[in-house]
Amino acid sequence: MERCRKPIIGAIRGFAVTAGFEIALACDIVVAAKGSKFMDTHARFGIFPSWGLSQKLSRIIGVNKAREVSLTAAPLTAEIAERLGFVNHVVEEGELLKKSREIANAIVKNNQDMVLRYKSERAHDYYNGMTKEQFRKMQEFIASRGSKKQSRL
């Protein structure tokens, strides 16, 4: 999703759990219906987050709050997610697609070269400061996690 040149608006209704949460965080703008919940269950099931959740969430809401969200696997309501900053708008369920389209229409009215440039320059911010070697080791670690038996605490 980060490689997509155009902005992605996530319209979340219901639960965004684990991979769904990671997909929501990969969106440029997130609109959630009231009653929606976000939950990171990686720690509960012994799965290493490999799509950027641990990096993105901590950069958006802060390291300590992100640890709490991930380590407790407690669901966050759309309203809390908006307060924490990873949801842009919370709307009534019947208004979800309408609000998402309003945002898309506002984006389309802007200079598209600048929109694309802004998106591409922002896309990989969460890897800033990481050397190529660190990035390679992170990817190798993530890949190796899938081949090992998960431990229980």
TrEMBL record:
Keywords: Lyase. It comes from the Eukaryota. One of its GO terms (cellular component) is peroxisome. Transmembrane segments: none annotated. InterPro entries: ClpP/crotonase-like_dom_sf, Enoyl-CoA_hydra/iso. GO terms for molecular function: lyase activity. Belongs to the enoyl-CoA hydratase/isomerase family. This is Putative hydro-lyase. It comes from Lupinus albus.
